[in-house]
Amino acid sequence: MPTASALSPEVLAKYQPVIGLEVHVQLLTKTKAFCGCVNLYGGEPNTHVCPVCLGLPGALPVLNEQAVEFAVLTGAALNCKINPVSIFARKNYFYPDSPKGYQISQYDKPTCEHGYLDIPDGNGGLKRIGITRAHMEEDAGKSIHDGFPDSVTRSYIDLNRCGTPLIEIVSEPDIRSPQEAFDYLTKLKEILLYAGVSDCNMEEGSLRCDANVSVMLKGADKFGTKAEVKNVNSFRFIRSALEYEIERQVEILESGGKVVQETRLYNSAEGVTYSMRSKEQAHDYRYFPEPDLPPLLISEEWKNKILKGLPELPEAKRTRLIAEYGITEKDAETLTASASFADQFEAAAKASKSPKRVAALITSELTGRLNAAGLELEQSPVSMKGLAMAADLAESGELSSKMLKQLLDISFEKGEDFPVVYEREKPQQISDTSVIEKMIDEVIAANPKQVEQFKGGKTTVSAFFVGQVMRLSKGQANPALLNELVIKKLSE
Amino acid sequence: MNLETLSIDQARAALTSGETTATALAEAHYERIAQKDDEINSYLSLAKDRALAQAAKIDALLKAGDPLPPLAGIPLGIKDVLTMVGSPATAGSKILEGYHPPYDCTAVAKLEAAGAVLLGKLNCDEFAMGSSNENSAYGPVHNPRALDRVPGGSSGGSAAAVAAGFCVASLGTDTGGSIRQPAAFCGVTGLLPTWGRVSRFGLIAFASSLDRIGPFTKNVKDAATLLGVMAGSDIMDATASHTPVNDYVAESQKPVAGLKIGVPEEYFGEGLDPEIRAAVEKSIADLKAAGCEIKKISLPHTRYAIPTYYVIATAEASSNLSRFDGVRFGLRDKSASTLTGMYRQTRDAGFGAEVKRRILLGTYALSAGYYDAYYKKAQQVRTLLTRDFLSAFNEVDAIVTPMTPTPAFKLGEKTDDPVAMYLADVYTVAASLAGICGVSVPCGNTKDGLPIGVQILGKHFEEGMALRVAQAVENSQP
Ligand SMILES: [Zn+2]
To answer: N or C, which end of chain B has less CB nearby within 10 Å?
Structure first.
């Protein structure tokens, strides 16, 4: 990573970075925030538009109810207070892709305030990051500066995106390192995906992040002057941009200079930030209440109705899965990577006698194969029902782990579900009484203690012998015959 | 048929009796416009295709003996800040020259759906900013009652067209008096509905929290008829109220005996023309004679209304007019080499002096460091002004005031003194800020023959009451 200079770790360690993040998230509503146009990424330029989102003279905004519902869900998922009254405000600025010359946003009375989310603190515990506010606003269109024959002299504008509902989530300056910023964004994205309010697709711009960062000497009680870093389009880049920016600011301070309050753009190709505009050039947005929209009133009744649609969030789901299925924390973490992943697991776990083994199979066998094949869980050739069957066969000893791996490989190779492969490829059964009896004798001889237990009246111990013999036969013993013979032998 | 006095009822009677047809009525108005509008300059564009197609539809209904919608065949003019498919929408500005809106204003569409024939678009002050119609980029409108005088503004064309018999009625807009004051200057009736009573969708905004659409008519009953057609909620305007729409015609025709009429002392102070004072006092006496109880009231914050209005209206305007940037429609100065240059040159060439003045004032009022002292303070005073009216309406059913401090002034008389022009809004802006309804109704003439108007103010959504008192004033005219 290019750095501002070669600062020693000792020098860097003298300083405490302070970071706050502003995340813009496009909501997955059917229509735009203030008009009836379809809310859909892409499309032929300027086809998802109408007089309202084009800002034509005389057109007026009318708030999309679903956008409010998604805002409330977002706020609730981030532990925010949902304000019963929120006010839309105009943020005034001129830009060609902002057709009205102002953006409808919220200013001093946002819909959601005072929330938080927890990130790992690096020591196995959690650190709480405050969320100042989550407010509703509309997206701008896109200016297209290249790709046309006359792009040297002309810019084009596509207003399809204009009016897409956004939530801007503003964190408190509680983040203390680039890694914490990365963790915060990871958690935030996970929660938003779970809540189903956004697809959080950074490439398509449905999640965008600006970072405010300053540094101060450790132990200082006053934050340093901050810079805002914009235009960072991946979580990894944000981490790198913050690392660069922290070093840049430390270097300035170390050389006796002063950090200037400004907005900086991150260039991911060079890994550096560039000054975009200083505080003096900063916009005065002249916010004032939007007179075309009445105050947004969210009654307790409406709020509760909306919150009924809030799905189980990742933290809660992990805790429940561990309690309900006895799986490990690590497996729970993997299995809750997405809500649909967790749902799939639960479907398989419910169909199986051994949820723990289902979890282990998914995390150890299935995900690796899916990754190698470049498939999503939804595209897995092995269905959850098939996985449950495999888990049960493995649990009963009918299938050795080596055999199981082989069968799964065949499933992925041929694109066939596990039961199909199993039926065709399953080991030949041993139904020869004398062969099975020989193996039973072997197991009995090796486990005198269990034999004593059986003879003492604990007949359930026979299952232990069945399992041991099954393992010895590599799962090939005829299960019915084996059962019968084990009882017979033990009772002799 | 005398087009100058032709009312909705008279026109309807002429149509149903077979005395005329909708087409003939529209043609007669176009004929009159062609002959006389050169000296008035009220129409900016004529919508002959659309009007005659609509007239033909009404004539087919007449011929078939089918039931007629309430405004069947009534020729109307539309202020050019309201959108109408097929016609340009200039808002009186060069910056919108050549702009054709792709959708109809809700109020206009409702009138047409009720059978009205939309003759064309009427001149006005640029973006409805002005009190004399001298700020139109397409030339001033002349008062039909005295051609060397202003018709008032900003809906000067709408008032003049009705007074001159260029339409049976018209639509205007009122932000700080732009319906009521020109109605008074031209001697016609003007109705200011409660803010939120008529959808603003398709009204090219000046100041959103103040803008309202309302009719100019030849009598009070016609105003009630048009309001009944236009009023109501609109899925395209979140601020259009769901308050039930009343039968305004029935309400306007009720007797006034027993009503309590408030007369605010603050509206009869210094600067009021003695002839106007006399005419308004005569109307108050007439109301008393009709059985009303006259009560002196006080609206103590009235003197703050003009500064408050000019802060809020200009602040909202500075934002509303940002969309005229040369990017998507209307004028664009192509000579600029940078984006900022394009904005500057386009807006410099496209906006007139008064519009620029108000954008500057409003931008200043909203700027960081000034917001609290200007915009926020003005909103607080607005609340006080509204409370003045609300407490007055606890005592009285309607309030009667002079409509204007002076009769129509001469063209050019105040153009060099914007502050004097603003001060002439003294009787109109308080009601605008409070959001209440009102009627401007003729109550006599000066000895020079200039019309005088009286203002009847009503509670929010009680247009029926304001129209009822206005009808009584109209009835008492000789
Ligand atoms: Zn749209």
So the answer is: C
* CB proximity B351 to A under 8 Å: no
Task: Kindly determine whether residue A286 and residue B367, on different chains, have CB atoms separated by under 8 Å.
Answer: yes
**Min distance B101 CA to chain A CA atoms (Å):** 8
pLDDT digits 0-9 by tens, A275-311 = 888 776 778 999 999 999 999 999 999 999 999 999 9
Residues of chain A neighbouring B318 (CB-CB closer than 8 A): 92, 286
Note whether residue A141 is domain-resident: yes
Return the CATH architecture of domain B8-252.
Alpha-Beta Complex (3.90)
Is A299 within a domain? yes
The dihedral built from the CA positions of residue B178, B184, B186 and B187, taken in this order, carries a sign that is: positive
Cβ–Cβ gap B101/A57 under 8 Å: yes
- pTM, 2 dp: 0.90
Residue of A nearest to B203 (CA): A58
Size of interface A-B (CB pairs under 8 A): 105
- DSSP conformation letters of B185-253: HHT-EEEEPPTTTB--TTB--S-TTT-EEEEEESSHHHHHHHHHHHBS-BTTBTTS--SPPP-HHHHHT
Query: Is there a cis peptide before residue B154, judged by omega within 30 degrees of 0?
Result: yes
- Asked whether residue A198 falls in the same domain as residue A337, the answer is no
Give me the residue from B202, B203, B368 closest to A284, CB to CB. B368
Residues 141 to 180 of B: which have CB under 8 A from any A CB?
none
User: Would you call B323 and A51 a contact, using CB atoms and an 8 Å cutoff?
Assistant: no
DSSP state of B265: G
Return averaged pLDDT per consecutive 10 residues of chain B, 478 residues in all.
Answer: 96 97 98 98 98 98 96 98 98 95 98 98 98 97 98 97 98 98 98 98 98 98 98 98 98 98 94 96 98 97 96 98 95 92 96 97 94 95 98 98 96 86 89 98 97 98 98 96
